[in-house]
Design brief:
Blueprint: E1 8-11, E2 32-35, E3 40-42, E4 51-61, E5 66-71, H1 74-78, E6 81-84, E7 87-88, E8 95-102, E9 108-110, E10 115-123
Length: 150
């Protein structure tokens, strides 16, 4: 298995937990768990407080060759809690806060130490964008949402 980059992590709060993979090895996890460093109560959708930035108490030093994406945890998603604003650029050195939104009709509680998101390390590729008047044809064409069936 190819090893990825070394990510330096600074604890900003005593309650902060290091990101960690629940399963390692050949069939291990794609992303590392991130933990809440503080309590939060997410109000039901449509009420004030349904979206909050929850502190992890951590700052990362990503190498210039990599960034990170914050992804949902499936167990929270099943309860209606989802993440937003999940791109971490390699130059960012501030605290990693997880933007959580409660889409359910019930309040959702986050306690310190709860796994609230997953951190997926990605290689940074800087593309070149070139304007054109026409794109090559493909079987899918312009078919978008739902174009492959239900």
């Amino acid at each position: 298995m190819k090893m990825g980059p070394k990510i330096l992590v600074q604890r900003l709060l005593d309650s902060a937990q290091m990101p960690r993979y629940a399963h390692a090895g050949a069939y291990g996890d794609l992303a590392a768990d991130l933990f809440a460093a503080e309590a939060a109560v997410l109000s039901p959708l449509g009420e004030p407080g349904s979206t909050q930035a929850v502190r992890t108490g951590l700052a990362l030093e990503l190498p210039s060759t990599h960034g990170a994406l914050v992804e949902d945890r499936s167990g929270l998603a099943m309860r209606g809690v989802t993440t937003l604003a999940g791109v971490i650029d390699p130059g960012y050195r501030g605290e990693l806060k997880i933007v959580l939104t409660n889409l359910s009709s019930e309040p959702q509680t986050v306690a310190p130490g709860h796994r609230i998101a997953q951190l997926r390390i990605v290689e940074r590729i800087q593309a070149t964008f070139e304007e054109t008047n026409m794109l090559a044809e493909t079987p899918r064409g312009g078919g978008g949402f739902g174009s492959t069936g239900t």
